[in-house]
# Entry
Amino acid sequence: MEFIKKVFNKTTQGPFWVMYDNDCPFCCKMTYFFKKLDYFDKIQWVKKDFEGDFPKEALSKIDSTIVVYDPSKHEVFYHSEAVFKIISCLPLGLFFVGGLKIPGVLKVCDFYYKRISKNRHYICSKRKK
# Structure
């Protein structure tokens, strides 16, 4: 069993810091979902009022998108690319992210991500009724 854990741990990316809008019910639900799948604790979840070492340019975008920060490379990712970075930290996540290498797929995913992001408060208010 330990061998399988090592193999899965080697086939995932990370660690990453993920800043999310903790005032948004949709964002909190998605964060909870991904936390349950993060078996290797590769993701540090950071609320938007975090006052630690996080890139300043990323802080200004948190109200409109999720932000993934790679502290080892000092890179910041937004929109669907950020979501795919989160998925790549999960066991077998790299298999799902492999399709991003196809030209145009990331642009299509960004289009849908932005539509959901704009309507996230509306989506959660409709589900409660």
